[in-house]
Amino acid sequence: MRQINVLLWLLALGLLYVSCDSKSVYDVYKSVPNKWHKDSIVSFNITPPDSIKPYNLFINLRNTEAYKYSNLYLIVEMDFPHGKIIKDTLEYRMADPSGKLLGEGMTDIKENKLWYKEGVVFAESGDYTVKIQQAMRENGKVDGVEALEGITDVGFRIEKTTKE
Predict the structure, then answer these.
(1) Quick check: 132 and 114 in contact, CB under 8 A?
(2) Residue 105: which residues within 8 A CB-CB, separation 6 or more?
(3) Which residue, 20, 25, 35, 72, is most buried by CB atoms nearer than 10 A?
(4) Proportion of the chain above pLDDT 70, given as a percent
(5) What is the 3-state secondary structure (H, E, C) of the chain?
(6) Tell me, what's a Pfam family for it (predicted)?
(7) Residue 21's pLDDT band (boundaries 50, 70, 90)?
């Protein structure tokens, strides 16, 4: 009986913690099956809540100990409603110099919240699409890593700025 009370208490605290995320406007994850193929693009369709206020944009990643690199290269494309496209090649640090994976989490799954863009105003009305693709290369090799191991989920997050 005591274990049930403790579990209910932990569940309630967890729900309270998640529901208190007042900055979040959009926060969606998509699973990566087994390995993230270099040609596989993870897409997010977004209808911005406001066309005047600025927002901070993040790429969220969940990875396991199977991720064997100290960094991560991503190609991120944002397609605007009226045809404009912005494409960025981004690099993120995923491990410290000793090889210990960065990120939050007490289990073997680490969660990383990575800056993408700051103070973005979605001035065009309509839906935006964000496309994320891994662009990892081995040192000295021209071809990309065919199937990247260790990334389990890719997410995209929009937050209200603190300027409001």
Answers:
(1) no
(2) 111
(3) 72
(4) 85
(5) CHHHHHHHHHHHHHHHHHHCCCCEEEEEEEECCCEEECCCCEEEEECCCCCCCEEEEEEEEEECCCCCCCEEEEEEEEECCCCCEEEEEEEEECECCCCCECCECCCCCEEEEEEEEEEEECCCCCCEEEEEEECCECCCCCCECCEEECEEEEEEEEEECCCC
(6) GldH_lipo
(7) low
Task: Look at residue 8 and tell me if it is in a domain.
Answer: no
pLDDT tens by residue, 94-112: 988 988 888 888 788 899 9
Residue 9 covered by a domain: no
Residue 141 and residue 107: Cα distance in Å, rounded? Answer: 33
Per-residue pLDDT tens over the stretch 106-149 = 788 899 999 999 999 999 999 999 999 999 987 777 777 889 99
Range(s) of the domain holding residue 95 = 23-160
- The reply to whether 13 falls in a domain is no
**18 domain residue, yes or no:** no
Asked if 52 contacts 155 with a C-beta cutoff of 8 angstroms, the reply is: no
- Within a 10 A sphere around the Cβ of 61, how many other Cβ atoms? 27
CB 60 within 8 A of CB 114: yes
pLDDT at 82: 94
